[in-house]
Amino acid sequence: MKITVDIDCTPQEARTFLGLPEVEKMQEAVMKELQAKMLENIANLDPENMMKTWLPAGIQGFEQMQKMFWSQFNKGENEGK
């Protein structure tokens, strides 16, 4: 036996019928706060700050990273011989 029930109502009507709380105002407040935080973080993403974060010692940090990669490649090359 199979029974199908179709209910045609709006989300607001369903929440009221099921006794669920009204969360629209809370969601709006949370979204405003989230938007403010995201805009603040985007403002902090200027290229100079990003480079300082990623390469603390500037070019010297990049050179050290490059040397590390080359040493790993050379190890694999020497092991193959």
TrEMBL record:
Pfam families: DUF6489 (PF20099). It comes from the Bacteria. This is Ribosomal protein S1. The lineage of its organism: Bacteria, Pseudomonadati, Pseudomonadota, Alphaproteobacteria, Sneathiellales.
